[in-house]
Amino acid sequence: MSHITLKRALPAELQLLLWSGQLQTISFKEFSALKLLSNAVCCIHNAKTQELGLPGRFFMVNEGIHSLSLGVLYLHGVLPTGLVGHRAMAMQLACENLHLPTRLINEILYANTHRELIAYGSTEPVEQEEVDGVMVLGDKLVDQARYIYPDWFL
Known about the structure:
mainly alpha, 64% helix
């Protein structure tokens, strides 16, 4: 009986980023891939609770999107090296690997930029519409990941 792995081949665009030092290879473990997915799904789900304030919900769903993004890269045996901008890069690469439309990718990256502004001291408020919008994006990202990597969800 052969063992089927969740690990995927490394696409050419990720190979280039690996070569440039923006990504690094990792020792792949099935459990870690499942843990990243579980964290993503839990964060996106928990962000829907009304017990958290708007900023908390906004941060929670963004963390879920980030975890799912790392998971998508992890499935290919790579992760960001931690250079400046690695969070946005991971999100963009994951969205591209999930074949999301450019409009959705831009909305996810915009939400991440707003999260960074708040995290680093901006007093710009988080509005209900923005929280609702980023939650829809999180759900779409999970749905698309389920479509592209169905065995990751088994």
